[in-house]
Each structure stands twice: as structure tokens, then as C-alpha cells.
């Protein structure tokens, strides 16, 4: 994470470097490393050196008086398999007509199709906006097996002969408390902004010209 828009988490703040820190989720713990930032990365109030492992929940601060992020551990309940019944194929998406319906804004209305016509299930992306991934690779069409990890939006799925299963997931929620941005001239753009984003959530920042709505982007 950092000020650069190349990062998955972009935080624009005077005390945040272009490439500031890296977070790695390890279940009930997280691994935080500072990337040579100018003002440092603080975990539980202590400036870290190198790589530090912390227990979730944890408070992380970018710079001594910069934005504070709260990292928490969340576990979703396991879901039963969504049986395919007599279908040779099922659709995945937000549309009510889909056999596997996911209420995720990152999922297109008709996102992907899974078919069982051959010896192995085949997943096909249906021109979705955010893509379909198998084992971390964006695909157009691919054969999968019971060990393959299918990513559709923020959902992790596994496919076998019985159908599609939502995998029990552990995710890190992104949250910030008291975020503020003040220009060198003394003008305040953001003052005491706090929010929390669940995995797969989208947030819109709306405001008129000069109100700070383009000052930072997540």
C-alpha cells in the first residue's frame, strides 16, 4: 500500500510514501513489512523494522501522525454445496436467473458458466467486467478439478461432480479511523474521516469540486 495508484490499497496522505508498507494475511495473524517509507510504519504503537508478525485485530499507522488502519480477522460460515441437479451447466452471477447467485458488486450479472459435458468441469468467463480467475490466473475458458480454486468477484469457489461450493473464507477488513488531509497552506481537505470496508465492498466518495473527494482512493 502507498500513495501510488499501482497499489491495491492507495492512501494519499502527506506522511504516506509512494510504496509504504505491505500486509500479508496469515489467518489469525498478519505479517507487516515497511517498504523503506520516509515516515515509517507503526504496529500497535511501535515503529517496525523489517518484517513483523502481529495478532489480529491490530492497529497499523502510516507515519507518526498519519492515517490509522484497523486490521481484523473475519471468518465466514461454511456453505453447503449448491447442487447442479440435472443441469449440465450452471451460470454464476448477480442475476436472479443464475443457478449460483452471488450478491457481490464485483460480480457481473452473468459472470461465468460451468459445464460438466466432458471428463472435467469447464469454467468459461462470460465477458465479465472484473474477470474470472482459476488458481490466481485470469481465464477465458479453462478445465478445472476438485483442487482448483475459482475466484469470482470476492467469492472463492470449488467445483466437483456434485456442484459448486462456497469456500469457508478468512479475510482482512480494511478500516481507517480519523483520516485527515491538510495542505501545506493550512487548508483542510479531510477531517476525522472513519470508515470500514468488508471484503468485496465498493465505496463511493461524493462531493463538489474542492471538497477532497479525489484526494484519496481505495
Automatic annotation (TrEMBL):
Coiled coil: none annotated. InterPro entries: Cell_Proc_Reg/RNA_Proc (IPR050923), FHA_dom (IPR000253), P-loop_NTPase (IPR027417), SMAD_FHA_dom_sf (IPR008984). PROSITE patterns: FHA_DOMAIN. Keywords: Phosphoprotein. Gene3D superfamilies: 2.60.200.20. CDD domains: FHA. Residues 1-48, 90-139 form the FHA domain. PANTHER family: NUCLEAR INHIBITOR OF PROTEIN PHOSPHATASE-1 (PTHR23308). This is FHA domain-containing protein. It comes from Brachybacterium saurashtrense. The lineage of its organism: Bacteria, Bacillati, Actinomycetota, Actinomycetes, Micrococcales.
Amino acid at each position: 500500500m502507498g500513495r501510488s495508484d499501482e497499489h491495491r490499497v492507495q492512501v494519499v496522505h502527506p506522511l504516506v510514501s509512494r510504496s509504504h508498507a505491505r500486509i500479508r494475511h496469515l489467518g489469525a495473524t498478519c505479517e507487516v513489512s515497511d517498504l523503506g517509507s520516509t515516515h515509517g510504519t507503526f504496529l500497535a504503537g511501535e515503529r517496525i523494522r523489517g518484517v513483523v508478525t502481529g495478532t489480529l485485530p491490530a492497529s497499523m499507522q502510516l507515519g507518526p501522525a498519519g492515517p490509522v488502519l484497523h486490521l481484523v480477522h473475519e471468518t465466514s460460515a461454511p456453505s453447503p454445496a449448491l447442487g447442479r441437479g440435472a443441469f449440465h451447466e450452471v451460470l454464476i452471477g448477480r442475476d436472479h436467473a443464475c443457478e449460483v447467485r452471488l450478491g457481490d458488486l464485483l460480480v457481473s450479472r452473468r459472470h461465468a458458466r460451468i459445464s460438466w459435458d466432458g471428463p472435467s468441469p469447464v469454467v468459461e468467463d462470460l465477458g465479465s467486467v472484473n474477470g474470472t480467475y482459476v488458481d490466481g490466473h485470469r481465464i477465458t475458458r479453462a478445465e478445472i478439478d476438485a483442487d482448483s480454486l475459482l475466484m469470482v468477484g470476492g467469492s472463492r469457489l470449488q467445483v466437483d461432480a456434485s456442484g459448486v461450493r462456497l469456500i469457508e473464507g478468512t479475510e482482512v477488513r480494511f478500516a481507517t479511523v480519523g483520516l485527515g488531509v491538510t495542505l501545506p497552506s493550512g487548508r483542510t481537505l479531510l477531517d476525522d474521516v472513519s470508515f470500514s470496508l468488508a471484503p468485496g465492498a465498493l465505496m463511493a466518495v461524493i462531493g463538489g469540486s474542492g471538497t477532497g473527494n479525489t484526494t484519496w482512493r481505495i
